[in-house]
Each structure stands twice: as C-alpha cells, then as structure tokens.
C-alpha cells in the first residue's frame, strides 16, 4: 500500500519551461490555452541554472496566471544568489500575488559552488521561504535516488528534512518503472513521511533526447522502452500515440495503488499531455485535443 487515498477524483498539474524567444512565448501562450482545458490544479514554471532564466520565468508566470486565472508555482533554487537576495525575490513574488513555490537546490554550473552566504540545500531554502511568507511549497523527490546522494536512505532522510522544514508536498522525478515509484512511496511512508507524494509523469516527446537528459538526472530507461520507441523519432504521430499509451498505463497503475495526483512534465507540448488527461477520465474538451 502507498498510504495515499484511493477513489478520489484525480488532479493534474503541468510544468512549463521559459522559451528563449518572443516567438516561443507566443507558441507557449497557445499551449497554455490548450492545457487549461484539462482544468489543472496549477501550472509550474522552471528556473534556469544560476537563475539564468529569472526574468523569463517571471514573464511566463505572469502570462500563465493572466491567461488562465489559475495558480502558478514559481521555481526557486539556491544557486547563484545569497540568502538575502533569495529572500528579497521571495518577498517580491509574494507581493505580486505568487503563493506557490517549487523549492530546489538547483543544478550547479560546472566548476561553481553554492554561495557561502546562500542557502546550501533545499531544506534550508524551504525554511527560509517559510520565514518570508506563508508560501505553499513543493520540493523534489527521487524514486531512483538523487545522483549526488550518498545512499537511498540519506536521500530519503533529506526529503524528510525538506518536508519537516515546511514543504507541503513532494513531486517526484520521473521514473518509468512504476514499481520503483510505488516502492519509493512505501519507503517514504515507512520513514514517517505523511505529506502527499505526487508522481512526476514524463511523456516521451523525443526518445533520443530523453535518453541523453535521463543520463544526467539519474533516471533509468527500461529495456522495454528502448524496444517500444525504436525508430519512432522518425514517425512523430506514432510516437505520440505510443507515448500517450505508456504514460496512461503508468498513471492507471498508480491510481489503482491509491495515487490521486500527477505532475506532468509537458515540455511545452500540449497534445500528449492532454491525451493522457482525457484517457484518465478528465473532462478535456475534444476540440483542444491534437492542438497545433
């Protein structure tokens, strides 16, 4: 058992990343309009290494909130700033109406370290944000263990510290082996973690790119996925159908075990994410499916 509540209406949230160009922003605005049809609980917007996308992240957060009227979670990291600078940014976010934060240590640029006068991990960041305002804070969890963790147990201990510091929930890194996700949730419950654990779902948009990215974040690619997606990067329509099926089946297994919320890494593409939501029984309007 996962310790999560079965038989509830499922909830979804969608993660976006800030585009680099104005043309990309216009495309993302259309994507947001389509994704809104699935009635997500909220959107979240990522934050580049060292705060490299700070202005673009803020712009996307404003755009999404303005177009949908839905809550938007602003990612924040410990990288590239002092505690005072991060606290000031958090105060500005609160003043602008942002109530949700995804708090992360963040990826360090090669050869750099965290500022001596900064937050040194996500648990410290959560505690600092709690001192600024009553944010609704999400943190990251790693079913396959964070690549820098000394062990699975130390990784789980750190997750508990983040939640004990004041985070409301954990969102997992994607993991394609559903048994791995379920075992992780069980281990977390056995460790005394009672906060919601929301599985992150990664629809396959390009398999070759996914493999490269997964190597850096410690997410494994099962052999069956290698076989299933072989050659499909050249046939995107079939790849999208297979990706929808794979993600839907994973969500259905998790739902059968009591999971009732999912965080979908959309990669700024609406079609497969919406198809997954429709397959899971969410009332997505038909005209929004297969959106351009």
From TrEMBL:
Molecular function GO terms recorded: FAD binding; methylenetetrahydrofolate reductase (NADH) activity
Entry keyword set: Amino-acid biosynthesis, FAD, Flavoprotein, Methionine biosynthesis, NAD, Oxidoreductase
One GO CC annotation: cytosol
Catalysed reaction equations from the record: (6S)-5-methyl-5,6,7,8-tetrahydrofolate + NAD(+) = (6R)-5,10-methylene-5,6,7,8-tetrahydrofolate + NADH + H(+)
SUPFAM superfamilies, alphabetized: FAD-linked oxidoreductase
CC cofactor: FAD
Pathway the protein acts in: Amino-acid biosynthesis; L-methionine biosynthesis via de novo pathway; One-carbon metabolism; tetrahydrofolate interconversion
Annotated GO biological process: methionine biosynthetic process; tetrahydrofolate interconversion
E.C. number(s) listed in UniProt: 1.5.1.54
Family: Belongs to the methylenetetrahydrofolate reductase family.
Official protein name in the record: Methylenetetrahydrofolate reductase
């Amino acid at each position: 058992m996962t310790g999560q509540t079965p038989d509830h209406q499922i909830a979804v949230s969608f993660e976006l990343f800030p585009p680099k160009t104005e043309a990309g922003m216009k495309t993302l605005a259309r994507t947001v309009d389509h994704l809104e049809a699935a009635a997500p609980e909220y959107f979240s917007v990522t934050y580049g290494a060292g705060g490299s996308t700070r202005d673009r992240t803020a712009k996307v957060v404003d755009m999404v909130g303005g177009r949908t009227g839905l809550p938007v979670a602003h990612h924040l990291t410990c990288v590239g700033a002092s505690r005072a600078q991060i606290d000031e940014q958090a105060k500005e976010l609160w003043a602008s109406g942002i109530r949700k934060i995804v708090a992360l240590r963040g990826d360090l640029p090669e050869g750099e370290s965290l500022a001596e006068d900064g937050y040194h991990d996500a648990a410290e960041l959560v505690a600092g944000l709690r001192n600024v305002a009553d944010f609704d804070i999400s943190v990251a969890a790693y079913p396959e263990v964070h690549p820098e963790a000394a062990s699975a147990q130390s990784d789980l201990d750190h997750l508990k510290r983040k939640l004990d510091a004041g985070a409301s929930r954990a969102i997992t890194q994607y993991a394609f082996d559903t048994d791995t996700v379920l075992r992780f949730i069980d281990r977390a419950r056995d460790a005394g973690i009672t906060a919601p654990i929301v599985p992150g779902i990664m629809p396959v948009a390009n398999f070759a790119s996914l493999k490269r990215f997964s190597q850096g974040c410690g997410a494994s690619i099962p052999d069956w996925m290698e076989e299933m997606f072989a050659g499909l990067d050249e046939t995107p329509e079939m790849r999208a159908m297979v990706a929808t099926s794979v993600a839907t089946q994973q969500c259905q297994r998790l739902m059968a075990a009591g999971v009732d919320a999912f965080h979908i890494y959309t990669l700024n593409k609406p079609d497969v994410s919406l198809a997954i939501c429709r397959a899971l029984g969410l009332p997505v309007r038909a005209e929004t499916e297969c959106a351009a």
